[in-house]
């Protein structure tokens, strides 16, 4: 549903001609993100929630937007610290 609505919004506000300019590897990345990062994540989350009591599931589902907002705020305000951590630890791993 999210992918469909995003596509409708993109087509409504962008030129349709740009779709033919998108390379195949970009489409493959979009499909990968849609299938593995979104669908599988929801599947595993819902599968795990079947093993919990309904009261815990409802609390988890209701607090998810709050946790998302908190983590987003922390990522935005601490981005320079995260960049330093990534540069310090990510680059040596990449080039080792």
Overall radius of gyration: 19 Å
Q: Summarize the main sheet.
A: none
> What is the averaged pLDDT score?
78
Euclidean distance between termini CA atoms: 41 Å
Shape: extended
Strand content: under 5%
Structural class: mainly alpha
Number of strands: 0
Helix-strand string: HHHH
Pick out the low-confidence regions: none
Helix coverage percent of residues? over 70%
List the total number of helices. Answer: 4
State the main characteristics.
mainly alpha, about 100 residues, single chain, 4 helices
Summarize the structure.
This protein is an all-alpha fold.
If you had to describe this structure to a student in words, what would you say it looks like?
By secondary structure, this protein is mostly helical. Helices cover 81% and strands 0% of the residues. The protein has helices spanning 2-13, 24-49, 54-77, 79-94. The longest helix has 26 residues, at 24-49. The chain is extended.
């Amino acid at each position: 549903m999210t992918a469909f609505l995003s596509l409708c919004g993109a087509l409504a506000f962008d030129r349709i001609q740009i779709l033919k300019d998108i390379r195949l590897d970009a489409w493959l990345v979009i499909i990968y993100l849609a299938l593995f990062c979104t669908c599988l994540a929801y599947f595993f989350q819902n599968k795990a929630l079947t093993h919990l009591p309904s009261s815990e599931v409802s609390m988890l589902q209701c607090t998810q937007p709050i946790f998302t907002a908190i983590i987003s705020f922390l990522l935005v305000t601490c981005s320079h610290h995260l960049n330093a951590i990534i540069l310090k630890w990510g680059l040596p791993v990449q080039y080792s």
